Amino acid sequence: MIKAMFKTREIEWDRWVANAEKHPDKEAIVHWVAGEEPFRWTFSSIIKAAESFAVGLKKRGVQRGDVCAIIIRHNKYFYPIYIAISSIGAIPTVLTYPNPRLHPVKFRQGLEGMSKRSGLDWILTEKAISEVIEPLITLENSTIRGMLFPTEWEKDLKFEGKDLENIMQVRASISDTDPVLLQHSSGTTGLQKPVLLSHKAVLDHVTHYGKSINLSPEDKIISWLPLYHDMGLIAAFHLPLAFGIPVIQIDTFEWVMVPSLLLEAISKEKGTLTWLPNFAYNILANKIHEDELEGISLESMRMFINCSEPVRDKSHKLFYKRYKDYGVKPESLCACYAMAETTFAVTQTPPGTAAKVLRVKRQSIAKGVIELNGHNENSRVCVSSGRTIDGCEIKIVDEKGKYLNEGMVGEIAIYSVSLFDGYRNNPEMTVAVLKDGWFYSGDYGFCLDGEYYIIGRKKDIIIVGGKNIYPEDIEDLVNHVKGVVPGRVVAFGEYDEEIGSEQISVAAETKITNVAGHKKLKLDIIKAGMTDDINIKKVYLLPTRWLIKSSAGKPSRKANKERLVVKKEIIIWS
């Protein structure tokens, strides 16, 4: 197992350079593109390239402390560009590249929202989208000083003479408490919360998390995760770079189109670790044809780590059933609980152990007390996200912040050595969630036998007649209704003036377009709720791709409720 190698006040650049000196020819990042020979960065070559980009950044006026937003497609130079920003004391932040389905105006509005919240100084991007971004720079009171196109720069630059002397002084003066990155907590575009993290927070975290998964020099990470999300940025970028192990980076958009790319990379590269959200297990289980699996072996994988809240047992079962004959082991299906505010992970299933599964009476959850229900099919299946990692503590609290015992449902509050200091430029929101060194997550869950189970978001709970209804339960039922697009469902509470209370509403995408079909589908959705004593009052049927998703890839309940209930957007069927 890899051991901590901290020196006093170590910064990430020092760690990266040390890895390059110790393992110059070892692969660091394998840039994977479908149908092409992968490009393989070694630890020494990526540092050399980063140094060249650092020269380019300094020449163009980027200073220590500047926030540099990277909006670049899957590109082999992305990684040294990111490292270069950090190496000169500037602060990298990764933002999503606009996909073809996102209107340029919507993209620009989202970017404007993030620039105001995060205080962006520079946009590092491609000329293909420069016309969309340009208006932001000329806006009155804009913090953005310019657009840079680093992938087009000369690639073999070096600091020399006085410039070398100056950059060495800058690097020597960077403290481990200085910010090293700005990442955005999940949300819809422009509404994400900017989280600033220090060198110490990140390095402490990867050390503790590496220990929790028994990280070793023989490990190899495989990832298609976007680097603008904490799961991809920390688990599949900072973690391997800090510990000197390889990571294979697959294009997110290519993976969405061809999910078998992940399995191909695992098989060819002998991968051992990957992190996935629930929907990825379902896609891999249901969307890959048998002929795409010829020659595939997944035997090298020791951990498939599910980072969803809540983790879905059905997703694990589907995946295991599909790939057990390809080498997937039941004990490799594990989970963690993670968020940007704690750098990444808070809990983790121990290696070599499958995530624990409980059946719980739904009615007991609604009352805030956990009652196990054996193998009853009408139970809620809860999957453990594991135990706390070193450096983290959890307490479950009630509405008044009072500590709750094991087996009781409440809000999850977290203490961590890698906790953020607050949301950038938003003291009001910071005060609302940080209290006496504890982060109040807004997630609801419970602890049983030292393991933590996440069951929903506090803000999303629907209160009907004094009873707590979790939207995840409703969505799980509706997702299985024939005619509904799986994974494209949100449930939320809608205030009913007549009864003076919330009622349950469901918004679901469907490919059905005729009136008779809609009428039947609405009835089927209401009946699905009745099977679990859930009374759905209103059903909104929507065309495919209508629902707004968060940066984590999940349909946003809040944003979609606003479109449907507040703005009352007209639903147009093609």
Walk me through what this model shows:
The chain folds into 3 domains: 12-257, Rossmann fold; 340-459, Roll (Luciferase, domain 3); 462-566, ANL, C-terminal domain (GMP Synthetase, Chain A, domain 3, 2-Layer Sandwich). Residues 1-8 have low confidence and may be disordered. The strands form 8 sheets. The protein has a 5-stranded mixed sheet. Strands 18, 19, 20, 21 and 22 form a 5-stranded antiparallel sheet that branches. The protein has a 4-stranded mixed sheet with strand order 2-1-10-9, sandwiched between helices. The longest helix has 17 residues, at 43-59. With 574 residues, the chain is α/β, with parallel strands linked by helices. Strand 26 (501-510), helix 16 (515-530) and strand 27 (536-542) form a beta-alpha-beta unit. Helix 2 packs across helix 3 and helix 11 runs parallel beside helix 12. The protein is built from 17 helices and 27 strands.
Task: Tell me the layout of helices and strands.
Layout: H1 12-22, E1 27-32, E2 39-42, H2 43-59, E3 67-70, H3 78-87, E4 91-94, H4 104-118, E5 122-124, H5 130-138, E6 146-148, H6 161-173, E7 179-185, E8 193-198, H7 199-212, E9 221-223, H8 230-243, E10 247-250, H9 252-257, H10 260-269, E11 273-276, H11 278-286, E12 303-306, H12 313-323, E13 333-338, E14 345-348, E15 357-360, H13 362-367, E16 380-383, E17 387-388, E18 392-397, E19 410-416, H14 427-433, E20 434-435, E21 438-448, E22 451-457, E23 462-464, E24 467-469, H15 471-478, E25 484-496, E26 501-510, H16 515-530, E27 536-542, H17 557-566
Parallel strand pairs: 1-10, 3-4, 3-5, 5-6, 9-10, 11-12, 12-13, 26-27
Antiparallel strand pairs: 1-2, 7-8, 13-14, 14-17, 15-16, 18-19, 19-21, 20-21, 21-22, 23-24, 25-26
